[in-house]
Amino acid sequence: MKLLWLTPVHQGSAIARYSELVLPCLIEKGCEVVVAATETNFVPSRRRPFLDLEILSVADCLGDGFDQAFDAIVANFGDHYPNHALSLDVLRFSRLIGIFHDADMTNFSNGMRADGREALGTTGEWPDGREVTASIARLCAGSVAHSSFYRPVIARCDGPIDVIPLAWSLPSGVAEQRKLSLPGGGGGDKAFQVLTFGNINWNKCADRVIEAIGAGPELRDATEYKLVGSIEPEERSRLCGLADRLGVRLVVAGPVNEDELHRAVVEADVVSCLREPVLEGASASAIEAMLHGCAVLVSDAGFYAELPDECVAKVLEATDVVSIRVALEKLFVDPGERSNMGRRGREYAETVFSPDSYADALLRLIADVRVTSAYDPLIKRIASQLTDLGLSPDDSSIDFVLRALESMVPVARRASRGEKVISLTAPCARNAEPIAAHAT
């Protein structure tokens, strides 16, 4: 099977790293993979190694007959438009699998608008938030979400959909670096280490963590809160000022290399992966912290709510300061529970977020899409004929035709999942509004 894999490829992209984990598994399972960079301003010197695979431009892959050159195209979509803009160029492909890394793609939509792209959909208006994700999904032949909370968003896709937990793992040798002793706290000279890493922006709730630490004298005196990752100067100044006023020890490390990041996670007693609101489809930082065996603090919402209660420490969805303080104090006074939570979280993450399992699930979806897409010419022809007859969507003959089509398709789209099975669209217009749909 020959696949075209569209992804950002630069060093700073988490989705590039995810691709780097999945691609070897697909190749080991017999796939021939061509990788195309989707950044608007790709710099070859900043690319990840990608198993020494050649990185092509999307334009190089989309010449005459490209639709016959690949068995399927897998396009990764995230909320950062400059990283994913060129994935839009393959929306006309009949066997396109869209992998949606974010439930909310408002920033992507804003980037499209600024870049002069046409609005997705038939109204010509620009949708916001999750409607952007839905609009792209309905232009795909199959779609993937990384957690169940936004499955309804990608269900606009007419073809097969699936929820596949995000593929993630630690670099070789890093897992063994996790300290074997119990974390400190509650005594001795070692500070109670709380860590937030990644892009330190407003929805990571770092200000609320500072307020929670500063609210209790014992926790405040024992804790050092560390921020690792890119941060805007204004946000750095705001957080440092807040920490100074509350007497909280705050270390803002800024961007670091991968070795320094892993060292910071290894040294942490608790990793804060709080979000409000939850915009991403899954959290690589939370999974990475779990794989390290850390106690992880999360908001009880979105992807994080789907993690087992015994594997992470959850605070209320509103992510208020009182809930954060209560959760941190429980972890602070009980090193044994922190260690046990970390062990349970690591065992769960190693099983659920396995790149090999991800590749297996994705190949099953690709096979499903290849079968159902073979019926697209028939569906378009029948759609054209029904449109010419002027039948209304609720006409009984429409239902009869749809049932007949479903009985012909070996994989009856998503009937077994209790979802919409098939849509009849206007001819040669995958992005047109369905004229009829049958629900099982």
Structural features, described:
The chain is an alpha/beta fold and 440 residues long. The chain has 3 domains: 2-167 and 355-366, Glycogen Phosphorylase B (Rossmann fold); 175-352, Glycogen Phosphorylase B (Rossmann fold); 380-439, no CATH class. It is built from 18 helices and 15 strands. The strands form 3 sheets. A 7-stranded parallel β-sheet has the order 3-2-1-4-5-6-7, sandwiched between helices. It has a 6-stranded parallel β-sheet with strand order 10-9-8-11-12-13, sandwiched between helices. It starts with a strand and ends with a strand.
CATH architecture of the largest domain: 3-Layer(aba) Sandwich
Strand order of the largest sheet: 3-2-1-4-5-6-7
CATH topology label of the largest domain:
Rossmann fold
The average pLDDT value, as a whole number, equals 85
Rg over CA atoms: 24 Å
- How many alpha or pi helices? 18
The share of residues in helices is: 40-55%
State the CATH superfamily name of the largest domain. Answer: Glycogen Phosphorylase B
Biggest β-sheet description: 7 strands, parallel
Distance between the termini: 32 Å
- Strand percentage lies at 15-25%
CATH C-level of the largest domain: Alpha Beta
Given as residue ranges, the uncertain stretches (5+ residues, pLDDT < 50) are: 179-187, 411-440
Count of extended strands: 15
Number of domains: 3
Would you tell me the structural class of the helices and strands? alpha/beta
The best one-word shape is elongated
